[in-house]
Each structure stands twice: as structure tokens, then as C-alpha cells.
Write a structure and sequence with these properties.
With about 230 residues, this protein is α+β, with helices and mostly antiparallel strands. It is built from three helices and ten strands, in the order ααββββββββββα. The chain folds into two domains: about 60 residues, no CATH class; about 130 residues, Sandwich (Immunoglobulin-like). A five-stranded mixed β-sheet has the order 3-2-1-5-8, with no helix packed on it. The chain has a five-stranded mixed β-sheet with strand order 4-10-9-6-7. GO terms for molecular function: copper ion binding; cytochrome-c oxidase activity; oxidoreductase activity.
Length: about 230
């Protein structure tokens, strides 16, 4: 999760988020090169006292500064389009999780198992412990196996919500009467935090999302314990 004074993106917990971080750095480097070049040219013009009549009109330089931005945009657009297609693809999921947004909590259903569903509320401030994060921890965490493609189906029961986990690169709108789906895979064990990212009412900031990523054996044992 994000740490104090962290100005960059969260560490990626999924292959898609790692690719998003790479694309962010790639685009940032191109922007840095453009800013450096423009600043150098502006500084040179300010300090240069010479003028040239050949610079008053130049077809070659006008052609160059028209074609160069187009080439730069291609270098940005190609990895961007690739990422868009990767994020939209649903890769043969091993399991399906359904998230339903309410005012102001989340309900979860494990569609592949019988009657495995629960509500997830934020832990009240007076019940927080030293090991929990204020406004981020929930009473019932989503337990998911790592290194497994997971399909997420999102909807809402009342108003617009948005199911968001920044470290997974997942942000899916929860719309009443509509099912939106996405997929992700968690590549390491741990606890991941997120929040509703749609202004859904007075308690919008008090419906966090907590995922506990575990091994496949631990997940099977967790499912078995709930089924008993």
C-alpha cells in the first residue's frame, strides 16, 4: 500500500499493474525529453543576440516540428493500446468473485461455491487494533488465491459505486442493474487495500476493500472451514 510521503504509484501486486507502472515511466521519460529540449531552445533564444533572415520562414523546420510530435505520439499510443487490450481480456478464470456495492458497504459472493457469501463493513475506529489500518480494514476480508486468474463481476444495489484496488490496477464501476466484469491475478501473498472511488453519498469514504492474498492450499482450507 502507499506509504507516507510516497509520491509515486503503489507497488504492483499484479502483472497488469506492473505493466501500468512501466508505461507510466516510459511516458514520463518521453515528457522529460520534450521539456528538456523545449527549455533548452527557449533559453538559447533568450540569450542569443543574433538573427538570421533564413529563420524567418523555413519549410524544412516547419515540416520537422509537425512530423516529430506525430512520431512521439506513436511511441506513446502503441504500448497504451496494448495495455488497454490486455486489461480488457478475460483469461480463462479459475474462479469468479461477485462484488455488490451498497450504501455503504460491500457484499461478496463466491459464485463457484455453494452459499459462500458475506458482507464486508469497515472496522469502526473505536475497535481498531495496533495491527489494523484506520478507515482501510474490514471485518470480513476477501480471501483469494495468488497466481490464479480471477474474474470479478461488479454491480450495485442502490447508487453508483466503484470497486478499486490501486495495487492491482483494477477500477470497475458498480452500476445498479448492470454487471461489469474485469479480471486480475495477484502475484504475491499479502493484504491489499482499496476504497470505493465513486462519490456515492455521505459515507462514501467509509466503505473500504480489503483483499487477503494466500496460497491455494490456504484458500482451500478457508473455504472448507466456512462450509462446515
Amino acid at each position: 500500500m502507499t506509504t507516507w510521503l510516497n509520491m509515486s504509484l503503489q507497488d504492483g501486486a499484479s502483472p497488469i499493474m506492473e505493466q501500468l507502472i512501466f508505461f507510466h515511466d516510459h511516458t514520463l521519460m518521453i515528457m522529460l525529453m520534450i521539456i528538456t529540449t523545449v527549455m533548452y531552445m527557449m533559453t538559447a533564444l533568450l540569450w542569443n543576440k543574433h538573427t538570421s533572415r533564413f529563420m524567418l520562414e523555413g519549410q524544412l523546420i516547419e515540416t520537422t516540428w509537425t512530423i516529430a510530435p506525430a512520431i512521439i505520439l506513436v511511441f506513446i499510443a502503441m504500448p497504451s493500446l496494448r495495455l488497454l487490450y490486455l486489461m480488457d481480456e478475460i483469461h480463462n478464470p479459475t474462479m469468479t468473485l461477485k462484488a455488490v456495492g451498497h450504501q455503504w458497504y460491500w457484499s461478496y459472493e463466491y459464485s463457484d461455491f455453494t452459499k459462500l457469501e458475506f458482507d464486508s463493513y469497515m472496522i469502526p475506529q473505536e475497535e481498531n487494533q495496533a495491527s489494523t489500518f484506520r478507515l482501510l480494514d474490514t471485518d470480513n476480508r476477501i480471501v483469494l488465491p495468488m497466481n490464479s486468474p480471477i474474474r470479478l463481476v461488479v454491480t450495485a444495489a442502490d447508487v453508483l459505486h466503484s470497486w478499486t484496488i490501486p495495487s492491482l490496477g483494477v477500477k470497475t464501476d458498480a452500476t445498479p442493474g448492470r454487471l461489469n466484469q474485469t479480471s486480475f491475478s495477484i502475484n504475491h501473498p499479502g493484504i491489499l487495500y482499496g476504497q470505493c472511488s465513486e462519490i456515492c453519498g455521505a459515507n462514501h469514504s467509509f466503505m473500504p476493500i480489503t483483499i487477503e492474498s494466500v496460497s491455494a492450499n490456504h484458500f482451500i482450507n478457508w473455504v472448507s472451514s466456512l462450509s462446515e
